[in-house]
Structure formats: C-alpha cells, structure tokens
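Provenance

Sequences were taken from public entries as deposited. Structures were produced by running a predictor on each sequence independently, with no templates supplied. The record for VRK serine/threonine kinase 2 from Cynoglossus semilaevis is shown for reference.
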Amino acid sequence: MAPPKKLALPKPLPDGFILTDTEKKKWRLGRIIGQGGFGLIYLASLDVDRPVAADTDYVIKLEYHENGPLFSELKFYQRAAKVESRTSSQRLRKPELLYWGRSQVQKWMKGRNLDFLGIPTYWGSGLAENNNLRYRFMAMDRLGTDLQKVLDQNGGMFKKATVLQLGRELVTVLEYIHENEYVHADIKAANLMQGHRDREKVYLADYGLSFRYCPDGEHKDYKENPKKGHNGTIEYTSTDAHRGVAPSRRSDLQILGFCLLHWLCGSLPWDRVLKNPAQVQEAKTRLMDNLPDSVQQLSVSRDSGTDEVASFLLYVRNLRYDEEPNYHHLRQLLCHTVKGRPDLHLPARPAGASSSNVPDPSSKEKQKEGRGRGTPKARFVAAVCDDDDEDEEEEEEQERGRPKPAAAHHRSRPRSKKDDATEVW
Ligand SMILES: Nc1ncnc2c1ncn2[C@@H]1O[C@H](COP(=O)(O)OP(=O)(O)OP(=O)(O)O)[C@@H](O)[C@H]1O
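Predicted structure for VRK serine/threonine kinase 2:
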C-alpha cells in the first residue's frame, strides 16, 4: 500500500494513545477538537491512567514528522515560551501533580509588572510512531474560540475601545516576541484565541510562520526578492513582504495596523482585489504613502478610532527596517479611556449550540472562501527559515539523521530535502 501523502492531515492516532515527550513525560490523547491545514488538535492529559477529562487544560498538536509548520512553531516555543519543569524525582513521586516552575513569559511579565501576556505556554514535544507512520507532536495550553469566529458573529467589526485595547495588548505580546529574536509574521483574528477558562484573555497563537529575524542579535539584511513576493496572509501581509523582504519588527506592526483597521471598519480598501497580489500591494502602498488622510477618510465618524490607527501606521511607516520600535509610544498612540480587558462577549448562543472548537460547516465554508483565515487561496505563504542549529537537546538526539530544516518555503507543502538546501530569504 502506498504511504499516505504527507501533505494531507495526519492519519489520526487513536483516543487513549500515549505519547512520550523528550523529557520522558507521558501524555494521553483524548478526543480531537480541531484541525488545521496540516495538523490535528487533541485534548490531552498527563494523567495517563484515565480518559482525558473534558475540561483538561492541555492540547496536543500532531503533524506528520516531515511537515514544516509544526517544526517552526516548536522552535519558537522552545526558545521563547517554555516552562521550566522541576526535577524528575519530584515528578516521579507524584506523577499526577504538575511540578512546573516559572515560565519564561512569567519572568518577563514580573519584570514589567504585568498580570497577563497573551502567549500560550509550551509544555513539551516529541516524536511518535504508529503503523509505520512518523509524527511530531507538541503539548501546549488549551485555548478557546478564535477571534475570527467572534468577529463573524459581530458583523465583522469590534467596538473602537475593543480594537484599541486589543491593539495595545498585542503590541506588548509583539514586544516580548521581538525581544526573543522572533517575529510572528501572521497576525490576524483567526490566530488570536480566547483563553479556555477566561474568555477575556486573548492569546496570539499559531507560530508556524514565525521567523527568527535576529538570530543571536544579528538582524537579517534588507533584501528585496521578487521571487518571494507577497508572502503571508494576503489581506494583512506587510508591504515589505509584498516586495519579498524577510519579515521584521516593523512588518509585524504594520500587519497589526491593517488588522486594527479591518476590525474597526469591517473592510479594507483592497478587499475587492485579494486575488491579485500586485493590486493589493499597490493599494497598501497608496494607503501608507497618504497617511493619515488615507486612513481617516475610511470612516465617516470623527470618533471611530481611525485617527489612532492612522497615527500608529504613520509611526510604523517611519521605522527603519532594523530599527527597534518604541513599544511604549505605540501603546500610547492606541490609548483609550476604557481600561481593563477587551470586551469580546459573544452574542448569546442559540440553545443546543456546541461550544467545541471543531470548525462548524459554515466556518469551513468561509475558510474555503479565504476570509482572513489564511487558506491556501488567501495565503501566499511565508517562507519560514530557522537557520541555526543550537541547543536542541534531546529532541535533536531523537532526530539524528534528519536533514536540517532550513526552510518551509510554502506552507501548503511539507519540508523536503530541496528546502533544506535552500537559503530562503
Ligand atoms: N491551543 C489550542 N487549544 C484549543 N484549540 C486549538 C488550539 N490550537 C488550535 N486549536 C484549534 O484547532 C484548529 C486548528 O489549529 P491549527 O493551528 O493546527 O491550524 P490553523 O491555524 O487553523 O490552520 P493552519 O494549519 O493553516 O495554520 C484551530 O482553528 C483551533 O480551533
């Protein structure tokens, strides 16, 4: 029998399957609660002796071993968002209890007096094999509904206060990621998820396209490459990415600015030409060249929030490619009198509606239409390059013999030996 195409979703592992991560922690799989282009999301638990509880706090993301996105995501979490586990002797005595230390994110928050930062925690990863198929998995925080679904139920818009609050919180998330040498490169509502227990908390998820723009403090050079143009999710991708330039801090902020504009106005000036990347690029360039008027005129009302977003984008336009943004100033530009958490309350659900994360048929349809979810159609996908090979500890041990993952050129296909040999940016 021919092996399944690795482009496809992985053949599911059975409910109750036990996975062992690189730190020898055992994870039990529960039911599947989500699926992306390449991977499956399972409920998971460290208590392997009984079925996974419906309210568990962990999920496991599973992909075929050869696929690029999970590998890139894993590298980001391992470098920037892992939690230190305590000694294994403590764990052995009481395996059902979690002896976790403080996470990297928590340490950073403490230094800044923050009580929340929207980056999910990474709990472990490893490789698995079943029926001659090889898988890669990652255990992470379980999250709730994504904001694209919330937007879809709100007529595609958020209130001004919500947009500005989200903007400020995301500037801080980006500040953390950027300080850790990474850019996200694919900020959009579909990649923002509410907390599993606390719906007022919003997390930036999906680091499958994240890019290490400043490995060991060396910023990548500005280099235009028309062959790599238009990478990213077409609606929001940066003008640098349209020119085939590797993502940087300023491109993350510009993408965020386009998202804020979309959530405020419910549409973007380039909505009608999304199938033509060159026209989208032209429209974005026009908007950036004619700030602040180009943004202010998108709204008829004076207090719509477009002034704030125009100032935000104007600041971003003036950043040099390798310049460190002033995140504090950016948060001030998005200032608003309403304090506290963004108001994301969903309209009441019809009786009997499911609260599961498995996409409903209508949202699947929207995905096919390419509405902001980064479908293959809407996404002229970013190359993800993670070109150093330091400190990969036990996982590298497990992976000896595997070619180095220099690049996942196209998110819609798995890594190949050819990718590995190619310098992406
Ligand atoms: N940590 C999580 N907790 C709960 N559900 C999640 C979590 N991560 C993802 N999901 C759910 O699983 C679905 C698939 O997520 P995944 O990140 O694999 O793919 P995607 O971003 O939708 O698509 P793509 O593979 O193209 O990036 C998401 O739409 C979401 O509903």
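The longest strand covers residues 26-35.
The first helix runs from residue 68 to 80.
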